[in-house]
Records
---
Amino acid sequence: MHYQTESWNSHKPTKSSSSSVITDPLAHIERLASDNAVVIFSMSTCCMCHAIKRLFCGMGVNPTVYELDEDPISGKEIEKALILLMGVSSVPVVFIGGKLVGAMDTVLASHINGTLVPLLKQAGALWL
Amino acid sequence: MASHRIEESALSDFGHIPYAVPHMIHPPTTFTNQEGSAFDFGELEEAIVLQAVNETKQPLYAGRPAATLEMFPSWPMRFHHTIRGSSKSGEESTDSGSAVHTLSSRGEGSRLEPESPVGRKTDSSSDHRVIDQMHHLQLPQQIDMASGSDSPRTGMSQAQPVAKPTSEKRRGAGSNSERLLDAKTLRRLAQNREAAKKSRIRKKVYVQQLESSRIRLSQLEQDLQRARSQGFFVGGGGGAGGNISSGAAIFDMEYTRWLDDDHRHMSEIRTALQAHLSDGDLRVILDGYIAHYDEIFRLKGDAAKSDVFHLITGMWTTPAERCFLWMGGFRPSELIKMLTAQLDPLTEQQLMGIYSLQRSTEQAEEALSQGLEQLQQSLTDTLASGSVNDSMHHMAVALGKLTNLEGFVRQADNLRQQTLHQLHRVLTVRQTARCFLVIGEYYGRLRALSSLWASRPREILIGDDISCQTTTDLQMVQSSQNHFSNF
């Protein structure tokens, strides 16, 4: 599990508006998600995020974690975008292989019905 | 007149031993039950004695079963219409008050006339009047029999030859018999009267208690109806007394209903398996059962919104279930472990599927447990830290953290639901049906264990209680047999 902090800025668009740091948060999220096999948007204080991190680590996966509350610049924007994307809560949100998987309930459901492991293997996050 | 018939059948046995009846009077309760109004045994006794007078006029074995009835003027109402001076000879009167008939035919009825049956019951002075009459009746031998003969038959056999010839003599002054009538009979009649009075009073009190209980019961039922319609579960069902929240009460009620539905589904699956239905039909039944489980998870989700503590502490389950509770319900990996022992004939693919299901549930449980642990740690930090000044702020933060509990319970239920769905996918239709039966039976037994444990005898009870305990044990075991009947 590795946490991304400074490298976020490398993805900032060249044209930046005065109001928002990121013009297109969703695209930003997509870019961040496609960088790694498993990407988790989380918050350091959120216990459900802790649970989801534990789940992937327990499976032997090494997810890339973005702690939104530790990003003073774009954290809030991404959080708002995630709420728009997910509808209910912002974190945790999981991307595997650049594709959106969902929050904890979908991750658990896919793990139980046996679709999570093949997805991870396909994304190159698991070798077994 | 059912009571009349009862009286006949009961008394026909005594047809030939009229004088045995006084001995059978005690206990009086048997007779009081046959009649709505109270039965005065004092009057019975007197009537028997009076009947003896009657017997002198006719042979005892005249084949008149009605004679026995006449000796039992137990229905005082009969006294009413018997005082009409009808002649007795040869008349098969089934009227039990005909003893009075004879009295009236003798002209003694004049003294009975003014007495109403009610009056007879309540007015003891009337009894004295009857006794006065008996004084005049001069029944030496019969009274001897009535006054405590142990062999009524011999008494009767004596009475028989005596009856006829002494019809004239009985009016004679037998000072001996008069004294006997006075001393023993009087005392016994008085005792009977007292007993009859006591039984009347007891019966009245009992009926009053019954009436008040009935009223109270109907009131309780009304309250319960009203409360249920309002969605509250009245009574000690949850064991929480009055401290149960409305959301929790509603859920408890719905859970009880769900349990009843569960029983229904289980028996449906059981009969379907035994009837060897086609896979298609069985699948329909199983889909219904899955939907039944989806229902409870949905209900739990709603309950988690209003009262998460009620769910997570397991107050909605039985104590035994509560002991092994994991995050507000059953632990999916434990369920799988329990099932693998029951589902022996599995294909290789199925075995793999079950094994991977077990592993993934274990991983998911571990993740959720760790998440909950972190929540608890964070909450502890919040509550432990902070000065007195910041207490309100810290409380607000702590409250915010508590809201995460609902999320964990929901994820745990989600895990349970997914586990059941996956089981249905991995196994064949018949295997799934057996599987569901095993699960249902298991929890039924766990619930039964809970109640058995609660009602087990304690060591501190000694002496007389021990015998009661063993019978209770037997009853408990027998009552729980049905839980173990199917597997």
---
Amino acid sequence: MKYHSQSFFYDDPWSIVSLAYFLRYPNPYASHIISCDVISRIVTPAGTLQTTRLILKRGSLPRWAPKGIISRAESWVLEESEVDPLGKTLRCTTKNLEFTKVMKMEESVFIRQTEDGQTAQTTEARVLSGFGWGLTKRIESHGLNRFKAHVQRSREGVSLILSLLRESRLQTMTLG
Amino acid sequence: MAQSLASECTPLKKEYDSCFNAWFEGYLEPAVSASSSPEKYSKYSQRKAEEFQQKCGSVWKEYKACVQKALKEKGLDAMLQQSREENPLSRPPPLPPSSNSSS
């Protein structure tokens, strides 16, 4: 099992970052997302919002991937999130639904408000492969490398949405 | 990616997403007075949930039904069920309104 974690900050307040995160698809940095559907959504008794989304993404297979085992370049992932506007936290976990016998990958994002009114995001990835046949380490490293590249792209995507939101809010304000 | 897994559901998805996004912006910023006590917040979030039901309830119903049907037709409901059984996501219990912990 491989684990990786990365944290960074946004200058904007928690609520706008969370909104940008929820609106992150579509954005030019996420062209690999083919479809995204909400399959369940509830407001819990505690007032938090729990959402489950089913996402189809295009993946690029590494050259050494066993072709007989992974037959398609598209795969399903499940995203589960919980937003707490009172505690100002957003948790979001994404995991692959297919090819789990080859590799299990889970990405968890935690977005929270900091004491000085900024927003902190921590992203963790867990990659587990029980595939064996000498491929385990390579599969786990590959999954982790993809994750690292993805975190940066994801951050750029969210930042883009953030700047669009900021602009549109400014316009709304000046139009009074 | 503004697509649904089934093209016939995409118009419903777009309508639902717009409705939800508009509601969601308001939901993210609880009025300052609502955060002053757990009871007030609970009432506030109930009102928010009702507001969602009023504004988006019917499009959600239609969209959800469309997606459920598509999932069955594509044989995906089995995949979803299996993932829930294999790996029931044990999420940390929802934070009580008065606490402000960070993990």
---
Amino acid sequence: MAPEVLPKPQMRGLLARRLRFHMVTGFVLSLGVAALYKVGVADKRKKAYADFYRNYDAMKDFEEMRKAGIFQSVK
Amino acid sequence: MLPKAAWSLVLRKGGRGRRGMHSSEGTARGGGKTPRYTNCYAQRHYPMPEEPFCTELNAEQQALKEKEKGSWTLLTHAEKVALYRLQFNETFAEMNRRSNEWKTVMGYVFFFFGFAALVIWWQRVYMFPPKPITLTDEWKAKQLQRMLDMKVNPVQGLASRWDYEKKQWKK
């Protein structure tokens, strides 16, 4: 090999650098995933239930089911 | 059971690696040499094997080994490289080189997926018995109609996707 001089590699602080990178990344990703879950899943679900029950009429629902013939106790 | 790391150590070290650790039987062997298994060379997980790569040295190499016993600052660069090559089969860069083996492996994997698929297709045509009554299309249609009548999961699930006025799936 030709005797060219390579730059001296990083000799110290390797674990510290790795830990810092991974801790920061882990923190950011965890917060991001939690935030996305809250918005995309949890809040969406709460809204769907609220919208469903806002104008829900249980007796009307029951009558529809009864007419469809699924009950054994009432026809 | 042994943890996975221990198993890989057991499997990869080969005969020589394990026995070479404890015994003087290696050095006492003298004339005969145990055959070198391919996985006795240095690997990333086994970087310092007991035996050097070259054990039979010619006169020049013997002289170099004698010089190595003195101060290392007296060795030239070429001599240091020669000593490294005597001790080790490959440098770290050579040992860790990439290969195209993964393409071969994936090829075989997909080939056998396809082969298995053909075998199962043949079985479906010639061997399978008729479906149970609950898996026939008529039964499944009646089952779905009953689920919609019962309004199964009306908030976010099945019945929420059905338009009860128009009697069709919501767009």
---
Amino acid sequence: LLPLETLNNSYQLSSIPLQLLFYINQFYYIFYFVVTLTMIVYKSHVFSYPDQFLALDLTLLCIMATLEVLRLYLGSRGNLAEDEGPLGLSLAIMIGSIVLSVYFLVWQTYVLKVDVIINSVLLLMYGLESVLQVLTIAAVVG
Amino acid sequence: PSKARDTAWERVRSGPAPLTDVAKLCVCDLLVAQCDVNCCCDPDCSAADFSLFTTCSVPIVTGDSHLCSQKAAIYSLDTDANPPERVFELVDHVNPSVFCIHATNYEQALSFSSPEIPTAENFDELLKKFGSATFRAEPDSWSMNSDVPDPSDANETYRYEYGVPIQTVDAFLRLPSPVVSSWCSDANPAGFLVHQATKCVRSISVENCGNIQAVSMLFYINSSILAVNISVQSIVVQSLNGMRTLLNSSSVLRHPMIVDELCINIVLGVSYHITYTDTGEIIEAAASFVLGAVNKEALTIQQSFEINFTQVNTNPVPFSGNPGYVVGLAVRAGFKPQGYPFPIALLLSALNTNKYGQLTILQSTANQDCLTAQESRTPVLFGYNMISGCKLRITAAMNCQPLAQVLLDLLMGQSFPEYVASFGNSQAQDVLDWVPITHLHTSEQRISNTFQSSCQIPVALEIEVKWTKYGSLVNPQARIVNVTATTTTTTLKQLPLGRERTIPITTSVVFTDISSPAEPGYKAWPTINAKLPHDFFFPFV
């Protein structure tokens, strides 16, 4: 368990590392989204990218962006308000995000080296965030 | 065992499996079981052969260079060693770029797809996909919207265009014609709407006249034009001395037979009449035959063939030009039936001046006497000014009025038309394409004494046809604009008994070109088109 700090004789349950990670995550995700979109455009020009695969990849990328925005908002709000509801919901949405990230890492039509790199970093971030979120939920509930 | 046979059959049907092992691929190995020169990857070459090479024409064999890591076979010649030997290395080629393909989940991405081997089942589909001049690079399953099939293809077998050979059940409708010499060749197809008339020579002998197919009627009616049977329209029998008789019953097929050392019922001429609709379908076909006879001495016969086309519901009036009149072809004319606001096609052509709907004038005969002239008329040909006439011998006993009527009939003919076609291909149903004939009357002499109501007899008919050039300057078409028929009359003076007078009666046709000269046209001055782009004041407008 993390050492609980006291401030005005009350324990702070919000986790600072988690909030840091959320902050970094939103900027990284913008970068990730731009790079993935650019790579899809590049692939469709250089390689033969049939229309239905292209449509599938773009749709999944948009879904992932939506999920990410929701997840970060709920997680950040739950962490700051020390509320386990949004935190739990955010954790649930993270499962979807992880699946989508694995798709872009392994099951995409063309997986370039740059895709491998940014998806690995994203998955690493998800892993750290999930651990911290679980701990924070436990602290808030318990 | 059956499953193995099926998989082997599958492999045969889909072609050999693509070779992807770089160690075994060799592009320069062209000669089978022989060593190719300077080809370091050729498995047929021995070490002794390698020592004679100067360079390696194929130094490296790799897969797709986009992949992040791939196998590469590198061939090189080690010239330092004595004798030179070939060095073969199999390495992993790494693409340093960050945009290299790490993995792909799409099999057709990096290799050419092996084409389908045509079999009886998929042949029609493959023909539909690849049978035309172009086809899409991606298979049809990729595209969202496939091309809409051309609706005219549905009836293509029945619709003809000009010049297309007429199809019959087995091949094409053939019109025998002379090819290089005058011998008949049976390979000339008849083209749609192409009027052909050919004459050619065929060898024949009386003994085997029954065996030669091309002289029997059956040969020419046997092939049916795609659901339309060729019917026999008429049979004319030509005897040995050239006399022709039209047979009454033309429904019986007559085969060549040997009768009294003569071979009769030999086809000497065929004339096909094809009726078509305006959508290009052939609905009727008829053939008229001329049958003749040959005797023992004859070695060859001359056959003549003709084909002509008529549009359905029109009478076969030949065009005098398409669309403008052609110089030398007859001027077409006709009537408008009484009471009808517009001519009806059949009626119009039925009442024409002559059978073919042509404007005619009196024809001069050797016997120049008008009254005994044989009513022969000649058609007016476009562009040819004509003059004809006869001499009228007037005696004292002639009465004026009947004489005037006879002369009028002589000049005008039995039924002088009211309208002349302005274009060579004017149809009877287009009223505006027909020009009315204006009639004028002039008198040769001024009637000096008005007391005598002397009768006038027509002595001259002058038809003036004014035409103009119509259409483009490069290809002007002749179009008749105005037709004026001027009848000149003269007074018939009573002759004293016993005296005779001869007056000439003339008919003339004059064609005048009234086309207006071309006007020069100049290109418009160039204008400066200076406009600001519509979003020039972007944030404010």
